[in-house]
Amino acid sequence: MTRTLRAVLARNPNNTILLVFLFATFVILSLLLPDKFLSLRNFQSMGSQISEFGLLSLAMMLAMLTGGIDLSIVAIANLSGILSALCMKRLIASGVWPAESLAVLLVAVAVALGVSLLCGLVNGLLISRVGVSPIIATLGGAALYEGMGIIVTSSRGIVGFPDRFAFLGNGFLSIFPMPFVVFAIAVALFALIINKTRFGLTVRMIGANPVAARFSGLNIPRTLTWVYLCSGLLSGISSVIMMSRSNSAKSGYGSSYVLLSILIAVLGGVNPAGGFGTTTGLVMGIFVLQFLSSGFNILAFSPFTQNVIRGTLLLVVMIVGYLLEQRAGSTRRAHRPSLAHDETPGTGAERPSGKAPPAAMS
Amino acid sequence: MVSSAARRTSSRLVRRILRRNEFYLFLFFVGFCALVQGFSSTFLTLENLFDVTRTSAGFAILAMGVLVVLLSGGIDVSFFAIAVSAQYGAVKLLIALGVSSLPMAFAVSCGIGLALGAVNGLLISAFRLPTLITTLGTQTVFHGLLLTVLGSRAINSSDLPRCFLDFSKANVLTLSKPDGTPFGLSAFVPIAAGTYVLTWLLLRFTKLGRGTLAIGGNVESARRLGFNVPLIQVCVYSYVGFLAGIMGVINVALIRYVTPTTLVGSELDVIAAVVLGGARITGGKGTILGTVLGVAIFEVLQTSLVLLGLSSFWQRAFVGLIIIAGMSITAYQTKVRNARNLIFRLE
Amino acid sequence: MTSTVASSTLLEARAIYKAYKGVQALSDVSLTINRGEIHSLVGENGSGKSTLIKIIAGVIGPDRGEIVFDGRRRSEGLNALGAIRSGIQVIYQDLSLLPNLTVAENIALSQVVEKGRRFINWGSMHRVAEAELRNIHAVVDLDALVEDLPVSSRQLVAIARALTQGAKLIIMDEPTTALTKPEVDALVAVINELRSRGISTLFVSHKLDEVLRISERVTVVRDGKPVGVFPATDLTTSQLEAYMTGKTVARKRFETATDQRGVPLFELRSLSREGHFSDVSFKVWRGEILGITGLLGSGRTELALSIFGMNPADSGEMLLDGQPVTIRSTEDAVQNRIGYLPEDRVLQGLFQSKSIGENVVVTILNELRGATGLISSRKTRTTISRWVEQLKIKTSSSSLPVTSLSGGNQQKVVIGKWLAIRPQLFILDNPTVGIDVASKAYIHEIVRDLARAEMGVILISDEISEVLGNCNRVLVMKEGRIVREVRSSDATEEELYGFVSGKAN
């Protein structure tokens, strides 16, 4: 048993380190704050919080697997939440259905998911059909969606939702908080799709080498559109949780989540250049950051300090990643100066340059 | 014989101009100005021009920095965080020392900006980190540190050293309206223009400048040529920081208020203007003229929002739309061209 | 030991040993190049020739042995920059140019960098660039951006740049892969021009006929060991191949009787794509290997890409088994069981960062599904091992990265992923470029097996001998049109060469 375990861990050294890190964080926090950290209440609270940014991290990871990035996840979440809240309010005000009815709940969720899917579709089409780079497309998209949210709400928040709706974010399924349940289901489905479907494999291959993917008969435009659609959908699910937990919807909520999800993805072993990353790693990363967040909150660090720590952690993780690769890489790759890798200081993508392409016709 | 040769060279020149992206940007700019003038006759007045250039001077200066970074093949989203840190530091120091000196304000602000920019450059060059994610990280760290260490309290105009207030009112050229009230071309403008000239000179006539373009074109080739890539990168990001320092001071003078919660978050606006001006996000391509036009178009588009009676709430959505529309056109053109020439790239 | 008399020997690499990544890359290899000589270095992939070049260029240092350049023994720890300063220039296959800068800059910037200047003098840069180009009789627009230039012009820029740094020895790594025939001639003229100026060229190429045409002497390495140095006039390509591989590969012409009655497997009718090719029509029968040859720029790759869906045609028809098909994407092509082996194996054929197994099954992801509709790992494993075994891919594990394989084995992987779709029509675009001779023969055998299995094969190749030896019929393309069709049993190499170069008609 230990041999297979060791084999599994050896195959993915990043996950091994992460597991150790996760364990260490847990132990340290438990020792430092035994009453506050190691309580059912705390776990439930963490389980609830994890869902918001955990879902967003899944969305980010999906985009990064293809070598892209989705900077609009928070904007999509906020817009979905806002439009959903508005519909809910209007519906309740119109009196067609009572506020606590299931119908209202369903409409709210449907609108949120629908809006997020639409936004994701726009992203996907821009990136796959028009050919805009993911950074620009999602950056522009983020501005657009956020802007639409601001216009609709005149920069004010929408508050006060029916209790039935609040259950989604605050209720419990036995001892598990509802958001955590939603998150767990999402993670399971995500892992399944990434690892065990043709779509998932295609996503990875496109991330590894989009040119070869095309030459292998893979349908890149369709796959990319679906990737950003799903990314949008995950943001939409997250928005429902966010709305329900905070009992409000406003633009600009959770703006630090973009950085956070990138941090989690990088921590979890997702390669920003594309093609690599495991769900296990991502989930471990999510947990590490949740433990840290809880620890910070209990220790009453200001949100600014927390941000500084997160930003520093992102930089440190990347630096460590680079140093480790240097040590391992020197036995595997002949490097300086080599034709095998052409590194551009852009998104950090390493491009194998190979032979001069002969098809450049004059 | 002579006339036909002259005709040929002039037609070649015309064709060259027509091929340049900047020409179409210019046309768009002129066209849009005409359109807006049609809606609101106060648009194309000298007074309005002076006003717009005053408020957008800082923005224009940062656009230079973003251009330089894009040319080197990278991207920087931390410049506002640097600007805010620099301006806050400068103002606080001046207040603490009880001094009111504009040169000192610039010196301190640019110094801080340079240092923070250098941090970016060192991280990126020493560890070959991806630039977008790195500067996202440093943006968070710089801004967070500022808020934690220096506090989040604003400094009102009443507490500002006089030099800023004087600077705010300084004009290099004063004219009067028909009714006698004066209006002037702010001192910000020549400073902005100066940074443009400086950037142009550096890019065009120094090894460092050409090296910047070189690494944006092909890092490996640049390395093989003997360019000191880490040094160039440190210089590039330090330069952005330096410009952010200048912008920081101008910004304080403009709004006569210092608060650490401003600016950060609107980096996209600057990037949008530069990209609109034709700079390639993958690096190596972009011109100063294009950036100038990009900034001009961006400012005009924003002003038109106000004149069309749309509230400032529309601004964000507008920016997003501009980027998407502008980049879609370019991206699609490239896509079609690549398909025709059977060029397969990894991006 | 410095020699005060300028001898005729420019470079002498003596008894070089180098162990690299646990493998003895070079054992007792020597290389001498005289001043003003055009010398070629040949060897298969893995023969150690790239290691030798890196050592000469100062990129890596030898374990044992010494290098004497220009009368001076090279010191230990000399790096690439030092080698450049002493007069050695390498023009790699990617040319190492800066695409977004002008020709003048590309040529003259290296001088600026080297001299440590801080400021740019555009006037002098232009003058330097112009002078250098004139020296090699090249006409290139100084203000053009390199990325807008065709490959042949870029090469001239690269050579001119090498010359500005006072090169005494220019090493050219596979310079002719992307050149058309007239461009190759122009390059040869330039190399000869260099010779007359006393500048030596080390020509490294797989194209043996060019090697023999251009060089004076040829050094052959095999498996890291020296085979010998031979005057080019004494050699034929088959002799050279024999030295390179240590075996003689007998070439058997491919003979099958193809049934050319009935409905052809594949037919093109007046296929056209503006600027690429026009009015192309031909038929391919089952069990047939159809060859297409022509110079680079004749439209053959564009045509192949059209059939494969990468480059949809403007007009014309494609028929499979007599039924018209629409192929406007590679997905369509794969669905119609058309496979394409790209010319650029590294970028277009392989996923370098992925494992061997992943590379093999990427085209048949659908088939890996189990009963549940999800990908079954067991099925994946069995499918991968089946193909690895069938193609005799030499590896200890299919989960190793595909980059751990040799060039020939990598090509087998790419072929494997296409065989996996059980193609009806298989297009191979220059499949044996840069492949060692043994693997080359093996790939030809695979191709023949495909034909024997009633598939249709289109083999595109620059090498007349390859095309004649393996195809039933050969089509010659020129400037986008098919200008000739020959039965390979009726044609000779010289005749075909004549059709291709347009000398005969």
Describe the structure.
- The complex is a heterotrimer of chains A (362), B (347) and C (505).
- Chain A is mainly alpha-helical and 362 residues long.
- Chain A is 73% helix and 3% strand.
- The C terminus of chain A is likely disordered.
- Chain B has a domain of 222 residues.
- Chain B is 74% helix and 3% strand.
- Chain B contains 14 helices and 2 strands; from the N terminus they run H-H-H-H-H-H-H-E-E-H-H-H-H-H-H-H.
- In chain B, helix 3 packs across helix 12, helix 4 runs parallel beside helix 6 and helix 7 packs across helix 11.
- Chain B is globular, with a radius of gyration of 21 Å.
- In chain C, helix 3 crosses helix 4, helix 3 runs parallel beside helix 5 and helix 4 packs across helix 5.
- Chain C is globular.
- The interface between A and B is large, with 67 and 66 residues.
Strands of the widest sheet of chain C, in order across it, are 6-7-8-3-9-10
User: How many E strands of chain B?
Assistant: 2
By CATH, the superfamily of the largest domain in chain C comes out as P-loop containing nucleotide triphosphate hydrolases
Structural class category of chain C: alpha/beta
- Give the termini separation of chain B: 49 Å
Given the structure, what is the number of helices of chain B?
A: 14
> Compute the gyration radius of chain B: what is it?
21 Å
**Oligomer category:** heterotrimer
Strand numbers in spatial order across the main sheet of chain B: 1-2
Radius of gyration of chain C: 25 Å
Strand content of chain B: under 5%
What is the count of β-strands of chain C?
Answer: 20
Unreliable stretches of chain C? 1-5
Instruction: State which percent range the strand residues of chain C make up.
Output: 15-25%
Give the proportion of residues in helices of chain C.
25-40%
Q: CATH class of the largest domain in chain C, please?
A: Alpha Beta
The proportion of residues forming helix of chain B, as a percent range, comes to over 70%
Give the count of structural domains of chain C.
Answer: 3
What's the main sheet of chain B like? 2 strands, antiparallel
Number of helices of chain C: 17
